[in-house]
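Posting for a labmate who doesn't have an account.
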Amino acid sequence: MGLLDILLGRTKPVVPDLDQLFALPSAAVTLEAAAGFTPTGQGAVCFATVEGAAFEQTHREVQALLDADADRTGPPVELTQDEYGYSWLVSRRAPDELSLLVNDLHAVNSSMEVNGFGPQLLCSLAGFRADRGRALALVYLYKRGTFYPFAPLPGAGQRRDNALELQVKAALANDLRIEQDLGRWFPVWGAPGL
């Protein structure tokens, strides 16, 4: 970055750091102690919908890679599309296998990145639950290399628990690289894995 960039307010784009995902298991311990949330064993990678033979080949590679896990029950990853037109590769594990889920999410992101689909990657999330059915997702923004909590309120409508999200932000400040710009805490309504 040069002096002219600094004077004009230009910033260097953040490089995605998928290794940040490996901080989730230790953050889960803090999250359980601070707010009573435990992993659900579900997670997903979201990307702008891609079609064509190259993506189909990448999807097959991801499934073959994750299918090598003999302990897995069910499909290695499931491809779904949400009502907004985004695609999700969903992984399901036992709730006590968060580290394996993180490996799955990392493998999916890495495979898509290596095969040229990095620009389409949007986010990854890991689901958590607490008493009374409260849901929470820790969302990793691929292009920012940061996390944020997303806590939808139960019931009808699209409302979120902002107080809980800020509480989780404070609790996990030492465990995860938290996104400081709250305007980037996008809602992921109806996300699979949540």
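Reply:
Got it, the structure tokens are right above this. Residues 13-184 form a domain with the Alpha-Beta Plaits fold (CATH 3.30.70).
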